[in-house]
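Can't paste images in this forum, so I'm doing it all in text. The chain is below; anyone willing to post the predicted structure tokens underneath?
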Amino acid sequence: MRFIIPCFIVCSLGVVAVAQSQRVPTRTKMPLAFQYTGGVGLTTFVQSENRTWVVYPANKRTQVYVEVGRNRNSITLRRANTTSWFRLHSSHCETRKGEQGQWRRLARGVWLTGRRVPAFEQFGGTDYRLRVVYLVPRDRKPKPDYEKKIKVVLSLAAELYVKDLREKGYETNGLKFEAANGRPVIHLLRSDKPASYFNNAPKYDPNVQFTLVGREILNSLGDPARHIVIVFAETYEEGPAREAWVGHIARGAAIPPDGGLAVYSTWFLKDDFCALSVEAQKRLFFDATPIEGRSAFGHRGQNSPRFEFIEDGIGALCHELGHALGAPHDQRNNRVYIMGNGFRNLRWNFDPSANDKVAFSDENARLLMSSRYLAKDLTLSDYDNPKVEMELANGRDGGVDVTITATDDLGLRSMVLVERMRPSGSVIMGQELSGKRRRIQYRLPDHLLKGKYVKLETYVADNGGNYGRVTKTLQLPAARGN
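Text version of the structure:
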């Protein structure tokens, strides 16, 4: 899992009224907005929810500030996890570094008020409902019945998440999607760029594609830092491929506490793999008809059975969505764990006689229940990350001792420890946390001490759904490293 740095293009402001009063506008049901032109150009502060303000600067990097004070003359804001403070007056704004720093005048500005403060995102404000996008480049056509098929896939993903988490004893309403008339909204995004722009043909690179797809969403619909966005990308190629389809992408990344991005190719929306109803789709999970000339991922020969492609599609989408929700890889049980390769056995979840249903590990389930998109008991006004420290030490007996110290002003919630010696890594251990400070000591298992070094990463979530992370590397003694 990796975290992306979002960008943002400020949209046209439209027609608004400018407040003439020398005082700060009073609190109303309608949001406020303050606009000024500074060193990076036009910047707009828009009042959001839970005492937060979203800032749209001209350099396109969206920011979140928390309101910490308000009186008749000014509103004071603090940017989470930084020393940056702003104070908005009736005709200008000020800034300072740190709580004790000196205020300095930054620029002239105006309040934008009236019935309609302009929307800066087609997606709207953060409401912890997943946004769904079908991205179609200019040289591709939307698949027939794409809306019905995508809704079938979303229904199965939502069923998987809520069933597993509730069976583990968590109180959750499950995943919710942006909806109209009670049905998920599928944003059709017709790009003016060709598919090769996204898939980086002929040097196909899913990491480059992930970045470019995220940028396209950002510039056209809204900021993945403010919403979790699932993108079905019509960017693969129809020609021969060693596995599945060339130009395929399966990637996910979290931007906690409000955002994330999951991208998956749309070859599995073909009629061969995707049905128009949930019941029909579940039947397809057991269809072993060979797909002529195609090999599923990890399949050694051509003509893989239909169900393997379906698991590679719908199962992997559930896996990538897990990354967007904050869960890292967990390869301790690749037959069962969704965040390992367990998603490739998704069909057994629809067989009443099967014993091994695919599921999230207990450690990743706790992290998922630290997400604002699944948990019901988080402090949504909290945007400060917990502080995390980790120490690694070679023991006298040849083992490696790990010491993790985590603190948070409002309260800690969960943690996982991940090994990063392999490119994809895997969860090693984790536990539920409570209180404002915890010290955790752990002896690393011997099977992880076979190389020249160990590289570990700790994730800690707090009661606001914020993440703190730290990565450390330790060189092993020569005798251990051989």
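Confidence is low (pLDDT under 50) at residues 1-21. The CA atoms of residues 156 and 278 lie 7 Å apart.
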